[in-house]
Amino acid sequence: MTPSAFSLTLDPAVLVLEDGSRHTGRAYGARGTTLGEVVFATGMTGYQETLTDPSYAGQIVLQTAPHIGNTGMNAEDPESRRIWVAGYIVRDPSRVVSNWRADESLDDALVRDGIVGISGVDTRAITRVLRSAGSMRGGVFSGDAADLTPEEQLRIVREAPAMAGQNLSAQVSVAAVEVTPATGERIGNLAVLDLGVKRATIDNLAARGFDVHVLPQDVSIEDIRAIEPVGVFYSNGPGDPAASGDHVTLLRDVLDDKLPFFGICFGNQLLGRALGFDTYKLPFGHRGINQPVLDKQTGRVEITAHNHGFAVDAPLEGETDSPNGYGRVEVSHIGLNDNVVEGLRALDIPAFSVQYHPEAAAGPHDANYLFDRFADLVRTTLENKN
User: Fold this and answer.
1) Is 359 a catalytic residue?
2) What is the CATH number of the domain that holds 293?
3) Structural domain contains residue 1
4) How far apart are CA 154 and CA 156, in angstroms?
5) Rounded distance, CA 60 to CA 33, Å?
6) Catalytic residue among 23, 306, 333, 357
7) Which letter does DSSP use for residue 349 in this model?
8) Do 321 and 193 have their domain in common?
9) pTM
10) What distance in Å separates the CA atoms of residue 248 and residue 69, rounded to the nearest whole number?
11) Out of 78, 176, 203, 370, which could bridge 358 as a Cys pair, Cβ 3.0 to 4.6 Å?
């Protein structure tokens, strides 16, 4: 299918934030009402990967880049089976699609997946509000919902659930096991707990020699043991890690079994909680493909892709004894913008994690080596068993 130009609608839409501020623009995508946590993403490219990242479930995403949609949408780059954002905010949507790989316009894709959006608003001004006050609940109202009174719209927004305390894993996880065979020299079966995993992550793990078994988020330790895994991986995903007690309990069983473990993003937060540390909500989170992170082991500064609103509360310097009895732990990576914990490394068990996305589809590849580091950890563990 060849995507065609589309006319920008004049249908009204309004973005309402829980602080009472209103931003009037034009309807974009599907019409109706959508509610969620309003967050901003700083990437200038890769909006298709952002939209299809399950970690954005429950969030209305504002793109800080002003011009969005020029490259359309294609069938090769999605990170999952659908668009997951709760809503979409852009300043200037492209009037035409200008890329030979495009199969449809961004507007058509938003309509197809029922994503309510808004365009023609001052995204810079909204970003400054979120940067100062922090991410907050919001709603986009278009179609008939645009005619609701301001008081009614604000009431609807303020009655919506906050992100803190939400467990959203069941919304984004697979319903049944899905297996991707190894494309590199085979190491063995890898159990991937799908908390919102992305396609690029699966492909990177398969390329390192793992038969990747993507498991539903509600599996038991017996289900994991049944596939005789050489390691376990916890994916990225949406929601509050403090509301995922079952996943933490499962991970403690994995650590007790001495299975090599690698977690990214949400998986990093859950490893932190399994080790006995707390997590907390960041004011506005890290979302974009240009976040500087220090790898303390190598001394290198890497530019990395992020999408997280929560972080692990652990000492940044030195070694710390795991409060839950898993030996020594160190913070392996630190975010240089705000000194947030960006990685954990257990020194007495085979487990580590990072807060960002080393697969970095549509982003920098500085951290891709972490998949090799995990494969080496698994090989070493297997050699020591023999």
Assistant:
1) yes
2) 3.40.50.880
3) no
4) 5
5) 12
6) 357
7) S
8) yes
9) 0.91
10) 39
11) 370
Does residue 365 carry a catalytic annotation? no
The set of residues, in sequence order, having a beta carbon less than 8 Å from that of 256 and lying 6+ positions away, is none
The stretches in the chain having pLDDT less than 70 are 1-9, 361-362
Quick one: 123 and 212 in the same domain?
no
Of 18, 302, 330, 359, which is the active-site residue? 359
Instruction: Please report the pLDDT score of residue 364 as a whole number.
Output: 75
Query: In this structure, are 296 and 318 located in the same domain?
Result: yes
48 labelled binding-site residue: no
Question: Is residue 371 part of an annotated ligand binding site?
Answer: no
Q: Which CATH number covers residue 138?
A: 3.50.30.20
* 265 annotated active-site: yes
Q: Which domain holds residue 80?
A: 12-159
Residues 288 and 365 in one domain: yes
Q: Is 309 annotated as a binding residue?
A: yes
How many whole angstroms separate alpha carbon 315 and alpha carbon 313? 7
Residue 179 and residue 305 share a domain: yes
The active-site residue, picked from 79, 265, 333, 342, is: 265
Q: 309-330 pLDDT, tens per residue?
A: 999 999 999 999 999 999 999 9
Give which of 113, 64, 119, 104 is closest to 85, Cα–Cα.
113
Q: Which two tokens stand for residue 134?
A: 């922090």
**Is residue 287 in a domain?**
yes
Distance CA 342, CA 370 (A): 13
Q: φ and ψ at 241, to 5 degrees?
A: -60, -25
pLDDT recorded at residue 2 = 47
Q: Are residues 28 and 134 in the same domain?
A: yes
**Among 195, 187, 192, 196, CA closest to 213:** 192
pLDDT at 362: 66
Are residues 375 and 245 both part of a single domain? Answer: yes
For the chain, percent helix, then strand, then coil, each to nearest 5? 25, 35, 40
What φ, ψ does residue 120 adopt, rounded to 5°? 75, 20
State whether 154 and 175 are in the same domain.
no
- 261 annotated binding-site participant: no
In total, how many domains does the chain have?
A: 2
What token pair was written down for 318? 């030195």
SS3 335: strand
Q: Is 290 annotated as a binding residue?
A: no
